[in-house]
Design brief:
By secondary structure, this protein is of the alpha+beta class. It has two domains: about 325 residues, no CATH class; about 120 residues, no CATH class. The chain contains 14 helices and 14 strands. The strands form three sheets. Strands 1, 2, 3, 4, 5, 6, 9, 10, 11 and 14 form a ten-stranded mixed beta sheet that branches. Strands 7-8 form a two-stranded antiparallel ribbon. Strand 9 and strand 10 form a beta hairpin. Helix 5 runs parallel beside helix 12. The longest helix is centred in the last third of the chain and has 26 residues. The radius of gyration is 24 Å and the shape is globular. About 35% of the residues are buried. The mean pLDDT is about 90.
Length: about 450
C-alpha cells in the first residue's frame, strides 16, 4: 500500500513549482497522519527531527499552489474504477472548530450537534466539501467517499448596528453574490472542466445535495452534462406545465407531501444498497414537474421515498424514519441509479467524521489566510489517497493483512481509517526502502509515534 500512496503523491510534482516543496508536502502528509495525539504541524516537525521548523509552516503560508490541484491524481486514478458513464459525487459543507480569535475567516455559526430545543453556537471555519462516491455495491460493500474538493467557504461579515444604509445595502448585495450556493455552482463547473481535461468528456456528473442546496441559485444555473439530485421540503409548491398557449405554469399546485398521501399514485419498489446489504425501498415518482420559485421553467422529476421501518431491538416495536422528498434535474435515466447515488451521499458524513477524528482535520494551529486554505486541503487529499491506495492494493474488502477485528466493530466488510493508519506505520517500519529517499522520513520515529 505504501508504494501506491507514494506513486499517487508523486503526481503532485505538477502542483508545486519546486521538487523540494513537493517533497516537503509529501513528508508532512505522511508523518502528520502517523503522529500520536494532536496532528499539528509542530508535532510532525518534531518527528522529522530537523532543526529548521519554519519551512513546514511556509509550505502553506508562502508557497504558491492551488489546493484544488492536490485532488487531481485522486480523480485520475479513481475514475478508472467506476463503470458506466455516470460519475457520482456527494456535496456538503462542514464546520471545523477553532479556538484562535485572530483567524479572520473564523466566525460564530450554528453547532449541528446541538439539541433541537436549544441552539448552540460554535467558533470555527466552514468548508465546502465534495467527494467522489466510489460505488462498491457489486462487491457487497458500501460506497467509499473520496474527497476531491475541499474549499474554504467563509460567509460575508455582517455590518454592525451603527453601519450606514449604504453599507447594509452593499452587504445584502454581496450576500447574494458570495454565498454557499454560488460557490457550489462554481465548484460544479470547475469539476466539470477538470474531468474534461482528464479526457472524460462523455462522463455525466451526478451531484447528490443536501436540502440547503435545493434553491434557485443552484437549480437555475446553466450546467452542462451535470445532473443534480437534492432533498427538498415537503411543503414545496410544485405544479405542471399549463395547457394554454400563453401560460407557462398550471394554476393547480401540489406539494411533495400531497404526493406521498395521494392513493392514486402507486408505490414502486426497487433494490438499494444501504446498511450493508441490498434492501427493498418503496418510492413514488412524478415526472415533468415545475418548481416556479426554485427552477423556473426547468422540468424536474420528483421522488418520494417511503419511511423505512426499523427496530432498535428484536423484541421492540417497529419504528419509522422520516420520508424523503427529492428533486432531480434528469428525466430519462433509471430511477434506481439516481436513488442509489443519493443513498450513497451519506458516506460524505462518514468522511467528515473520519477526517476530524482520525486524520486531525482542523487541529493544525495556523491562522494565515493562505494556510487556512492549504493545510485542511492537504489533510483531505491525504485521506482520499490512503483510502484509494487501500482499494487498489487489497480490493474493496478488509483482508487479514490488517489483523483481527475488535469486538466493537460492526462493519466487517471494509477497511477503517484506523486500520489504514496502523498498517501504514507497520509498513513504513518494516519496509523502509519503500519510503522516498529525498523526503527523509525516519521509520524509527514513525514507530515511536505509534
Amino acid at each position: 500500500m505504501l508504494t501506491t500512496i507514494i506513486s499517487i503523491m508523486n503526481q503532485w510534482r505538477e502542483v508545486f513549482s519546486q521538487r523540494r516543496t513537493m517533497c516537503r508536502a509529501v513528508r508532512q502528509a505522511l508523518v502528520s497522519v502517523s503522529a500520536a495525539g494532536r496532528r499539528t504541524i509542530a508535532g510532525a516537525h518534531r518527528l522529522i527531527n530537523q532543526s529548521d521548523w519554519s519551512g513546514e509552516y511556509k509550505l502553506h503560508s508562502r508557497s504558491k499552489w492551488e489546493e484544488k490541484d492536490l485532488f487531481t491524481p485522486v480523480l485520475k486514478e479513481a475514475i478508472k474504477e467506476i463503470r458506466g458513464n455516470l460519475l457520482p459525487f456527494g456535496t456538503d459543507d462542514t464546520r471545523v472548530p477553532k479556538t484562535g480569535k485572530k483567524i479572520k475567516s473564523a466566525w460564530w455559526g450554528r453547532d449541528p450537534q446541538s439539541p433541537r430545543f436549544h441552539l448552540n453556537l460554535k467558533w470555527g471555519i466552514r468548508y465546502l466539501h465534495t467527494s467522489l462516491l466510489l460505488p462498491l455495491h457489486r462487491f457487497g460493500v458500501s460506497a467509499r467517499a473520496l474527497p476531491v474538493w475541499f474549499e474554504e467557504a467563509t460567509p460575508i461579515k455582517k455590518p454592525g448596528k451603527k453601519a450606514s444604509e449604504e453599507d447594509k445595502a452593499a452587504y445584502r448585495k454581496a450576500q447574494k453574490e458570495h454565498n454557499l450556493s454560488v460557490q457550489a455552482v462554481a465548484m460544479f463547473k470547475s469539476l466539470r472542466k477538470k474531468i474534461d481535461e482528464l479526457g472524460y468528456r462523455s462522463k455525466i456528473l451526478v451531484f447528490a445535495l443536501d436540502g440547503s442546496y435545493c434553491n434557485s441559485k443552484v437549480f437555475k444555473a446553466v450546467l452542462e452534462r451535470i445532473i443534480l439530485i437534492a432533498r427538498t421540503r415537503k411543503d414545496a409548491v410544485l405544479c405542471f406545465a399549463a395547457n394554454e398557449r400563453k401560460k407557462v405554469y398550471s394554476d393547480q399546485t401540489f406539494t411533495p407531501e400531497a404526493v406521498r398521501l395521494d392513493k392514486n399514485i402507486r408505490w414502486k419498489i426497487t433494490s438499494i444498497f444501504h446498511g450493508g446489504r441490498f434492501r427493498k425501498v418503496q418510492y413514488k415518482e412524478v415526472a415533468n414537474v415545475l418548481w416556479r420559485k426554485g427552477s423556473g421553467q426547468r422540468l424536474l422529476r420528483l421522488f418520494v421515498i417511503r419511511p423505512i421501518p426499523y427496530r432498535k431491538t428484536l423484541n421492540s416495536k417497529t419504528l419509522y424514519r422520516l420520508p424523503a422528498y427529492l428533486l432531480c434535474t434528469d428525466l430519462k435515466r433509471r430511477s434506481k441509479q439516481l436513488l442509489q447515488i443519493y443513498f450513497d451521499r451519506w458516506q460524505v458524513e462518514v468522511a467528515h467524521k473520519e477526517l476530524k477524528q482520525d486524520f486531525g482535520l482542523g487541529q493544525a494551529q495556523v491562522r494565515v489566510p493562505e494556510s487556512i486554505k492549504h493545510q485542511p486541503a492537504l489533510t483531505a487529499a491525504t485521506y482520499s489517497i490512503m483510502h484509494l491506495a487501500a482499494i487498489k492494493t487489497f480490493g474493496p474488502h478488509r483482508t487479514d493483512d490488517f489483523g483481527a477485528l475488535p469486538r466493537y466493530r460492526r462493519d466487517k466488510s471494509r477497511v477503517s481509517s484506523l486500520d489504514l493508519i496502523r498498517y501504514f506505520r507497520l509498513e513504513a517500519y518494516t519496509k523502509p526502502h519503500l519510503l522516498p529517499p529525498d523526503c527523509k522520513i525516519t521509520p524509527e520515529l514513525l514507530l515511536a509515534a505509534a
